[in-house]
Amino acid sequence: MPFLETLEAWSFRLFGRTAPSFLKHVFSFKDYLERAKIKIYPETYVSLMFFAALLTLPISAVAIAILFLYGFLPIIFLVPMPFYVMIGFLLTPISRAGERASNLEREMPFAAAYISVMASGGIAPYTSFKRLSEVELMPSMSYESREIIKDVEIFGIDPLTAIENAAKKNPLDVFKDFLAGYASTVIIGGDIGHFLERKAEDIFKARAMRVKAAAERLGMLLETFIIVMVLMSLCFYILFSVESIYSMGVSLSSGIILYTYLFTPMLSLLFIYLAHSMQPKTPLIEKRPYKVYGICSAIGIVIFLMLTDFMGLVNIQFLDSIQTLVDLPVAIALTLFIATAPAAVVHSRLAAKKASMEAGINNFLRDLTEVRKTGLSPEKCIESLAHRDYGEFTRELSKISSEISWGIPVRKVIMDFLKRTKSWMTQIIMFLLVETIDVGGGTIAMIESLARFNNLTQEVEKEKKMAVRPYMLMPYFAAILLVATTTMMLGFTTGTLGVAESSNPKDMGPMVTIFTTSAIFHSYLIGLVAGKISEESVAAGFKHASILVIIAVVAAKVVPMFVSFG
């Protein structure tokens, strides 16, 4: 862009002599820029950093003037603005390199399996990289493959040197080891097929260990969130209840509303972000539960306004009989339940279908390996397995078998199937299968390797679910504890206040309503975060949130029947 080029030219003209000294004695950007794939000279990048910091000096000057003239302390955060800019420039390459490594790590096991399976059919790894450069299912690996192909076909570098250079400039250690090990094996004349297969298995095992460690960290994160949410809420409730007794001048309603509907959602978003950064991610996101959630949320808001007479602004006569039975906590609970329950049902069905599809494909690949040993062609093997039970995959397999029997090419049939499914794991495995058939003829060794790698993937998923499952009882106990403790605390406060002011008792109804509503909303947030931490999706939290809302409102109504003070 002309503007960016002009800015770079001016910055280099002003700070071009200072930049080399900064790179030599303070911080070297070269390696980080290469790993982050930011195509700019380090000297130009440093000059641009100094120039951007210079442009923000007037902001610091104005902030200092306001601070001295008016004593407005919050503006002190704008004083070191140039340092903020420099820190941003320092962190950007590191952050971009980390993001590149994270995206590539997600796809690396399957790319290694692909290269290994192709090698077992006699396909050279460089040819596999050429094919991977056109694969949309693995966008990060496709980008890295295009860089290797560009070095070979445009700059004239031999394939082995291009692969070595790609390994040196990549931020992911697994990718480095894989490519560097391949280059070393070729140079010393080793068994390339054996190396690739063993390395692919090592990558899957390393991924299993990382997933298991991530599951333990996620369990600790869930514990931390629940402890913070419950204890902090109880502390604030006690503070606000004491204020309501002694009237210390703090606004009860504004304080509890800000805490409930501003601070705790922000805290929940923070924990959701932390969980998202720890979890393995896939490029394919199922959006249907979120669409249902949006529609049902609008319906829930309308029902809430009707149940509360539009927050007391409009009186609806035909709802009076219902409103006598439904107070504000029940109205909030119904609204949250209506918003989340249908989305939870949709997500549960889609998740069950996805799990059944992946398990069915795993069994199908094992059976395909055994049937292929009889000497049948891959197409005939698929047709012979079409009548077996593979869960959700059975219907799709029957359709695939029928289309193959009509003479449609296997590649087109399976690619059409990939467009119908929403599981990234299913798409990857079936893509690898069609590649083994299309490129290598679907030899027994290739299909057996593919089945083994897919089985390793399924084992990793099972271990992850088993590691997180024990933590899933905690949100339910936490919600019951929060609501029950809040209700008992309110009962104690009401009883104490009734004894102290027996002649002129204070109406505690509004405080009880506000606190109960707050506890129900906190239970809802706990369910959302628990779903994200346990099943890698906020949509998975709809189920827990809808159940916890019902548990919370029932506990709020039942506990006062058994516990009373004063």
What can you see in these coordinates?
It is a single chain. By secondary structure, the protein is mostly helical. The chain folds into 4 domains: 2-97, no CATH class; 108-206, no CATH class; 216-354 and 467-562, no CATH class; 355-463, Receptor-associated Protein (Up-down Bundle). Helices cover 80% and strands 0% of the residues. It contains 24 helices and no strands. Helix 6 (81-120) crosses helix 7 (125-132) and helix 13 packs antiparallel against helix 16. It is flat, with a radius of gyration of 31 Å. The model has no long low-confidence stretch (mean pLDDT 81).
Give a quick rundown of the structure.
The chain has helices at residues 2-15, 18-25, 30-36, 42-55, 57-70, 81-120, 125-132, 139-153, 159-168, 173-188, 192-246, 252-278, 288-307, 309-312, 320-323, 328-372, 378-384, 393-405, 410-420, 424-440, 444-468, 474-500, 509-535, 541-562.
